[in-house]
Design brief:
Blueprint: H1 10-34, E1 51-57, H2 64-70, H3 75-86, E2 99-105, E3 110-116, E4 121-128, E5 133-140, E6 144-153, H4 161-166, H5 172-181, E7 197-207, E8 210-224, E9 227-235, E10 241-244, E11 265-268, E12 271-275, E13 282-285, E14 288-291, E15 297-299, E16 304-311, E17 317-322, E18 327-337, E19 346-347, E20 352-356, E21 366-373, E22 376-378, H6 380-383, H7 398-417
Antiparallel strand pairs: 1-2, 2-3, 3-4, 4-5, 6-7, 7-8, 8-9, 9-10, 11-14, 12-13, 14-21, 15-20, 16-17, 16-19, 17-18, 18-20, 18-21, 21-22
Helix pairs in contact: 2-3
Length: about 450
């Protein structure tokens, strides 16, 4: 027997459809609430590294060849790189502790060598595989000179010039340059006292807004024991810079106060009767001993001619220089001589002639510095006060110098007295007091 399906009431059918739609919308809403629409974050694509870079500093006794070899550059490539470098830079002039970098492909092939010659120049060597060629060049780095001024003061807690500038956050090279300028007027080892003040107008060198060093000092004022000393840098018609006070009198004396950098430590003074620390006998000590680390630069205190640069018995490695006016200076117990120094060579004031050591009869690293006048040894510390000053500003340059002097001194004063610009904090309107005039 055939069974026909039972007839469905149309209203019931509509109810079931409506119920289904409601359930579907409810499920969708629940889904949106539980799992909100999230836009997937873009995925960073990591590109494959195409070169390994090794950054380091030049170690002691290293050569360009040893740097390349120890970084696995093949011998034939090393030879080619050195030959290319020689066309623009002497490979023997690598300096200890200067930064360098070597770039190689991932399979070890040489691509680039960079070496910081100094703060202003970089040696760059690049291998171009497309033409099988090595290019070497010295690149000059751009820098900007910004004029600045600072004032430092000697205190009981900062009794030295270096310490006073260090307290300002300045490097000691600025203090050393200031000491060199006034070295004929002030003994920075013994003359300083609390209250002494130093004002300096100078150039601050920056690259990409980062400090990289100092340019020349332009002007300076020192107040020392009640004395006011000034210094103005002036470049003469010969292109050389010299130092004069603001009236045009030279600050340069025939001799520097010391053959060593700033603040030498006197360990033994000039004496005709001193107990020798090695021979244990009383004998004359015809010079001044300055204690200093091995390798400290030793400078000729005045222009002259080298008479001796060699080993001299108990004096060890010694340099003797003949100067004008019957003077001779001697520098004993050196660890080495300046490159190329030899008898008969002319040297200028401030030229490096050797390095502190303890060769010969010495119990520790120091420099024995001696001055003789017409063949008779004199006390170096006392003789300096008798040295005449250099020539004043040339008459034909005097007017231009006095104009420059006034401008620099005004600039120095204005920069040190200008109030610092400090922005006032914002004031809330609720805290503004009512206007009494209303």
């Amino acid at each position: 027997m055939l069974h026909w399906p039972r007839p469905v009431n149309s209203s019931a059918r509509l109810a079931r459809v409506a119920l289904g739609v409601v359930l579907l919308l409810a499920c969708q809403a629940a889904s949106d609430w539980i799992l909100p629409n999230v836009v997937p974050a873009p995925v960073d694509i990591v590109l494959a590294r195409d070169m390994d870079v090794i950054e380091a500093r030049v170690p002691a006794r290293a050569t360009l060849e040893s740097l390349l070899r120890q970084n696995s550059v093949p011998s034939d490539m090393t030879t080619a790189v050195i030959e290319a470098v020689r066309t623009v830079f002497n490979p023997r002039n690598l300096r200890v502790d200067q930064p360098y970098r070597i770039g190689r492909t991932l399979d070890g092939l040489f691509r680039e060598f960079r070496y910081d010659i100094d703060a202003d120049r970089v040696l760059r060597v690049v291998f171009r595989p497309d033409v099988k060629q090595i290019d070497a060049e010295v690149v000059s780095l751009p820098k900007e000179a910004k004029v600045d001024a600072v004032a430092a003061e000697i205190t009981r807690t900062q009794p030295s010039l270096v310490g006073a500038f260090d307290a300002l956050g300045e490097q000691q090279t600025l203090a050393l340059e200031l000491a060199n300028i006034f070295g004929g007027e002030v003994d920075f080892n013994s003359d300083l006292q609390p209250g002494d003040r130093f004002e300096v107008l100078f150039e601050r060198l920056v690259r990409d807004d980062e400090f990289i060093g100092y340019g020349p000092i332009k002007a300076a004022v020192i107040t020392n024991g009640g004395r006011r000393l000034t210094a103005i840098r002036h470049v003469g018609a010969d292109g050389k810079a010299s130092w004069f006070d603001e009236a045009g009198r030279s600050l340069r004396r025939q001799f520097l106060r010391s053959p060593l950098p700033f603040e030498p430590r006197v360990t033994s003074r000039f004496s005709y009767r001193r107990l020798h620390p090695i021979h244990r006998s009383v004998r004359p000590h015809l010079g001044v001993d300055f204690g200093a680390p091995i390798g400290t630069r030793v400078m000729s205190v005045a222009a002259g001619v080298v008479e001796l640069a060699g080993f001299s018995g108990g004096a060890g490695r010694m340099v003797r220089v003949r100067h004008a006016g019957g003077y001779e200076t001697s520098y004993l117990h050196l660890s080495g001589f300046a490159k190329g120094l030899r008898a008969g060579m002319r040297v200028d004031q401030g030229d490096v002639i050797g390095y502190v050591g303890m060769s010969g009869d010495a119990t520790g690293p120091h420099l024995d510095y001696r001055i003789s006048k017409h063949g008779v040894f004199v006390n170096p510390l006392a003789e300096l006060s008798k040295m005449p000053k250099g020539d004043p500003i040339a008459p034909r340059e005097r007017d231009a110098f006095l104009l420059l002097s006034g401008q620099l001194m005004t600039d120095l004063r204005d920069r040190l007295t200008a109030p610092a610009a400090v922005a006032a904090p914002p004031v809330s309107p609720a805290l503004v007091p009512p206007d009494k005039g209303r």
